[in-house]
Amino acid sequence: MDILTLLKTAFGGLAANKLRSFLTTLGVIIGVTTVIAMVSIIEGINGFVYNVLGSVGSNTLYIQKFKWNVNIGGGGPSREEVRELSKRPNLTPEDAEALRGLPCLKSVGVLQEFWSFGENFKLTYKTKSHDIRGINGVDEYGIPLLGYQIGQGRNFTHDDIIYRRQVVILGKTPAERLFGDEDPLEKEVQIAGKTFIVIGVLGEKGEMLGNDMDDFVAVPISTAQRYFELPSRGPWRQLYGSPYIAASVKEGWTIEEASEMVRDEMRMRRGLRFDQPDNFEINSQKMLVDIYKQFTMGIFLAMIGIASLALLVGGIGIMNIMLVSVTERTREIGIRMAVGATRRDILLQFLFESVTLTLTGGIIGVLLGLSLGKLVDILTPLPSSAPVWSILLGLAFAAGVGLFFGLYPAYKASRLDPIEALRYE
After folding, report:
1. Where are the domains positioned within the chain?
2. pTM check: above 0.85
3. Helix (H) or strand (E) segment spanning residue 325
4. Can you give the C-alpha Rg of the chain in angstroms?
5. Lowest mean pLDDT: which of 155-159, 264-268, 371-375?
6. Neighbours of 323 (CB within 10 A)
């Protein structure tokens, strides 16, 4: 029996019992829909997150007081741990200057974030105002190290830092809120009551999972320390609001090689003996990617569990319905054998029907999964992207379920005695 004949026979059997065929494949449809929808959402988010992290710089090191460590199960550093970490020495411009002498580093900058811890900072221009949670203090190297580009105007200069000039660079969001269509350059804005002159506007960066990356304000770090640093700072503020160093790694050097050279230089500068632990931490975007992968792996495993359960239920249903079909079509099987069909032909016929049944469910599941992913894309900030391998994997799973669970009914049909089958009523 050729493949075309097997296809006609299989689809004929499905068309004869449309409702039963649909209900039988429901488990397969649910399983494949779950796989495709979840993979679409996870892959879409993966691409977006990796793109954002890459724009900040996958080859950038961050020398700070604390280690990036996000506990997926919840919790964080204890009050005692924060108190001890906050006692570590601050990173300084002198540290950054020393690191600039390392052959593995391309650019090194000192940065610090300032939060009001209560009310937002208020930016005003004439009658317009804009609230922002934090101010970024940076040196002349900081803007590119944070992954931003100057879209209009200029970057900070060394003189801006040395002389604590009251100049500011705005992200796209505050620039539009304050100035609209007006040119913001060389205009005076008030930040927490202090006058600053706008010297630059950043290029657009977009959103990350609902967070506006363009809602950004930067001033020279020396100016920020003069005006925005709180006179009384508890251990949490001393730890997370302390200055840090960002350093981009030159091409030809790995993150690991650069980390070791930076560690050696910092230990030497701080006079640490070989038996003393580091009193600083070196972080990188790779750590964030690893944390993110740990999070999405949990979702992926849960998805596999749900999909496997649905496919198992669907497979049992298919085996059951195929056994019923063999019983109902016993006389048909006898007639086929009487006119020359071999046991192999009968085996292939029922096996093909089983695979066709599940593959049809798989195709429906793929379409539903892609639709759900697109719906999430439209209704939420979460993007979706279905790779070709996920579609092929879903269809392969569906066909595999039909092959596995259809084998026994097909074998049973092929072993029927033709004479007894012809007598069956």
Report:
1. 3-51+292-423, 59-284
2. no
3. helix 285-328
4. 32
5. 371-375
6. 15
